[in-house]
């Protein structure tokens, strides 16, 4: 049900007051405090005259100057800005012109354009930015770009990737589990007018109405209910935000942010981030990460018909599982984590590697909630006892230890390889992987509680990995590549298997020089192609060590023309089903009238553990139809059956036409799989 991040220079700390800033600056030897300068910039902006604010074309915090900077269209307005104590730059386009251009771009985007995944105003460059994933461009993309270029004032950036849409005390940044699904992260605790307890998180984590919410994996330690009544979750153009009601006894709301070992932060209120701000976020996968705000009020297209507007983009890294987590400006809440790249990127220069959040004040206003602020738990857990190695391989060490105790509750353990954090677990065992063969290692463990307090380190445990050797030999090139069928938008391919000294793990299908599909077998279907068009494909094999074979000989194929009609629609593109991620595939129905009863969905997929999967159909209306849910608790794994067929009863008034999306979420570790094809009869 969910998608979905290290930019480290200094930890985000509490924001200082202007008087504190003046005291610092009065000392000749002292350096300006960036947090205090940032806070002053926000106060300066709030204090600008209404006349000047009405003339602004943008504003941002200039970290190099330590001041608020505003963009204005005339020199007269610039003189007024400087008289009010802020830096000013004269720009070509007014706010009205930028808004007008952005409005035209939004109209051209409509429900989505292949490859176009973000658009918004860049206030520092005084232009509208549009970013395009070149690996997904089609003729429709080129037509869109031609119209956009004609508008003027638009910068078109290209990339080859894009973002993905990721204990006793409820605490910002800590994990929570929607039903039996993979964890998300807590945004911010809040109360309603009657004192009812809640927390804010991502809408894509709360899209199931009245779903049980847990503070522990495997549906343990229930804390409340997500999206009560079906009206407390949004994952659409309006935003990505949702509410979990904390209804179970024994659960308290804490204003203390889980900073995962960084300096403690207690929430004092909320704020709106501006471009140039240094912000930090807390999430259960990437932990505590900081970066700079690059854009505000910018839109993103995650694919499958999911377009979200009004988001903030930053250089901090994030990962899947951070979804819904807390973004802060000093000690002020500013956002709920929405999405980011598939891996952490240090100092990103490509917009596709930025992390994105939903402004929190919008969520607080929408549901009339009040942020919890104040003090919290400061007592650390006891150190884990009796740490020990329970087994080794050439690349891993298994560890175990005795449980720690805490005045409230222990929520997890951090395992360190020397001085480096190797993994984080909720239980008292862990396996550290990715190690070198025949090498000595030393590990320690620290316990932590929901308030972010960490214990002293355990005594050290030494272990040596087993002897082994690295694989440097690539597979042989695939033979006999051939086209086995075409449609107006796809080409099906097959080839003979490659061989390898260890083992072939998969194949990449290239459309020209672009990777069009990744599969584990010897067949693939490349979709999203243009009708009546010639294409050239090659295939290369991969092994587990990352070695690539030489490409196969090329094969040429031409797509057919025309439309076969009917009410069955298919997507034959291969999508990898990876641990703790969601594979998303869409089909566009041109059928008219209401959806038939029942709707039939046929899924062709391979996966080693059916019980790890959640499968959901999302209608063009936004309604979700669960097809398969993981059981939770202990279970035995069985392979996903070939050609699995599901039927669902459509909701009242469900239209047949539009974009239908299949989502397959993998909620368990150590499994592999691929969604090779699915069809919808509607």
Question: Can you describe this structure?
Answer:
Helices cover 10% and strands 42% of the residues. The chain has 682 residues and is mainly beta. The strands form eleven sheets. Strands 8, 9, 10, 11, 12, 13, 14, 15 and 26 form a nine-stranded antiparallel sheet that branches. Strands 20-21-22-25-24-23 form a six-stranded antiparallel barrel. Strand 10 and strand 11 form a beta hairpin. Helix 5 runs antiparallel to helix 6. The chain starts with 17 loop residues before the first helix and ends with a strand.
Task: Please give a handful of descriptors for the protein shown.
single chain; 682 residues; mainly beta; 9-stranded antiparallel beta sheet; 42% strand; disordered N terminus
Q: What is the averaged pLDDT score? A: 82
Structural class: mainly beta
The shape is globular
| Secondary structure tally, helices | 7
- What is the beta-strand fraction? 35-45%
The profile of the biggest β sheet is: 9 strands, antiparallel
Q: Which secondary structure elements does this structure contain, and how are they paired or packed?
A:
Elements: H1 18-26, H2 34-47, H3 50-53, E1 58-62, E2 67-72, H4 75-83, E3 87-90, H5 95-109, E4 116-122, E5 127-133, H6 139-151, E6 154-159, E7 169-170, E8 175-178, E9 184-185, E10 188-191, E11 197-201, E12 211-216, E13 220-226, E14 233-236, E15 239-246, E16 252-253, E17 256-257, E18 265-266, E19 269-270, E20 278-283, E21 287-303, E22 306-314, E23 326-329, E24 332-339, E25 355-359, H7 360-366, E26 370-371, E27 385-392, E28 397-402, E29 410-417, E30 420-425, E31 429-432, E32 440-449, E33 461-464, E34 479-486, E35 491-496, E36 504-511, E37 514-519, E38 523-526, E39 534-543, E40 555-558, E41 568-571, E42 575-576, E43 582-589, E44 599-607, E45 613-618, E46 624-628, E47 644-648, E48 658-666, E49 673-681
Parallel strand pairs: 2-3, 5-6, 7-16, 19-24
Antiparallel strand pairs: 1-2, 4-5, 4-21, 8-9, 8-12, 10-11, 10-26, 11-15, 12-13, 13-15, 14-15, 17-18, 20-21, 20-23, 21-22, 22-25, 23-24, 24-25, 27-28, 28-31, 29-30, 29-32, 32-33, 34-35, 35-38, 36-37, 36-39, 39-40, 41-49, 42-49, 43-48, 44-47, 44-49, 45-46, 45-48
Helix pairs in contact: 5-6
């Amino acid at each position: 049900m969910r998608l979905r991040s290290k930019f480290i220079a200094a930890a985000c700390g509490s924001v200082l007051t202007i008087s504190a800033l003046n005291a610092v600056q009065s000392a000749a030897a002292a350096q300006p405090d960036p947090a205090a300068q940032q806070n002053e910039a926000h106060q300066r902006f709030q204090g600008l005259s209404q006349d000047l604010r009405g003339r602004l074309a943008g504003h941002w915090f200039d970290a190099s100057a330590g001041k608020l900077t505003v963009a204005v269209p005339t020199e007269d307005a610039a003189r007024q800005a400087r008289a009010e104590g802020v830096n000013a730059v004269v720009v070509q386009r007014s706010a009205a012109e930028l808004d007008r251009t952005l409005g035209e771009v939004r109209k051209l985007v409509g429900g989505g354009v292949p490859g176009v995944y973000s658009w918004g105003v860049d206030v520092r460059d005084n232009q509208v930015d549009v970013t395009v994933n070149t690996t997904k461009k089609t003729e429709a993309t080129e037509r869109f770009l031609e119209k956009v270029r004609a508008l003027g004032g638009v910068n078109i950036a290209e990339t080859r990737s894009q973002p993905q849409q990721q204990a006793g005390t409820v605490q910002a940044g800590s994990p929570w589990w929607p039903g039996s699904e993979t964890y998300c992260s807590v945004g911010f605790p809040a109360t309603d007018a009657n004192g009812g307890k809640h927390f804010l998180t991502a809408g894509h984590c709360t899209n199931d109405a009245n779903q049980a919410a847990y503070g522990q994996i495997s549906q343990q330690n229930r804390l409340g209910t997500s999206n009560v009544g079906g009206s407390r979750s949004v994952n659409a153009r309006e935003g990505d935000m949702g509410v979990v009601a904390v209804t179970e006894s024994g659960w308290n709301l804490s204003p203390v942010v889980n900073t995962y070992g960084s300096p403690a932060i207690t929430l004092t209120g909320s704020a709106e981030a501006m471009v140039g701000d240094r912000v930090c976020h807390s999430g259960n996968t990437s932990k505590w990460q900081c970066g700079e705000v690059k854009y505000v009020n910018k839109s993103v297209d995650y694919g499958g018909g999911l377009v979200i507007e009004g988001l903030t983009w930053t250089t901090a890294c994030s990962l899947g599982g951070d979804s819904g987590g807390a973004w802060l400006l000093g000690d002020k809440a500013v956002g709920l984590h929405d999405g980011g790249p598939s891996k952490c990127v240090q100092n990103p220069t490509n917009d596709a590697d930025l992390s994105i959040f939903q402004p929190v004040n919008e969520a607080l206003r929408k549901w009339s909630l009040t942020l919890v602020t104040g003090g919290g738990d400061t007592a650390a857990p006891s150190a884990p006892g009796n740490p020990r190695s329970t087994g080794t391989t050439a690349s891993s060490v298994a560890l175990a230890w005795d449980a720690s105790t805490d005045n409230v509750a222990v929520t997890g353990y951090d395992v360190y390889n020397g001085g480096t954090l190797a993994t984080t677990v909720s239980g008292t065992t862990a396996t550290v992987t990715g190690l070198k063969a025949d090498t000595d290692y030393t590990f320690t463990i620290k316990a932590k509680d929901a308030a972010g307090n960490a214990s002293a380190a355990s005594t050290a445990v030494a272990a040596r990995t087993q002897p082994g050797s690295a694989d440097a030999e690539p597979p042989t090139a695939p033979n006999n590549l051939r086209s086995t069928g075409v449609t107006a938008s796809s080409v099906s391919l097959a080839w003979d298997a490659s061989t390898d000294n260890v083992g072939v793990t998969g194949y990449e299908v290239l459309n020209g020089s672009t990777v069009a599909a990744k599969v584990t077998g010897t067949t693939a279907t490349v979709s999203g192609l243009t009708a009546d068009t010639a294409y050239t494909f090659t295939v290369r094999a991969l092994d587990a060590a990352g070695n690539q074979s030489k490409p196969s000989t090329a094969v040429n194929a031409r797509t057919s023309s025309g439309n076969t009609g009917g009410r069955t629609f298919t997507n034959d593109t291969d999508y990898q089903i990876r641990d703790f991620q969601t594979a998303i595939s869409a089909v566009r129905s041109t059928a008219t009238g209401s959806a038939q009863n029942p709707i039939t969905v046929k899924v062709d997929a391979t996966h080693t553990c059916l019980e790890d999967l959640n499968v959901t159909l999302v209608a063009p209306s936004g309604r979700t139809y669960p097809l398969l849910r993981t059981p939770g608790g202990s279970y035995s794994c069985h392979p996903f059956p070939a050609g699995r067929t599901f039927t669902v009863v459509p909701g009242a008034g469900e239209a047949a036409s539009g974009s239908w999306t299949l989502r397959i979420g993998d909620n368990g570790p150590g499994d592999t799989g691929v969604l090779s094809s699915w069809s919808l009869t509607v």
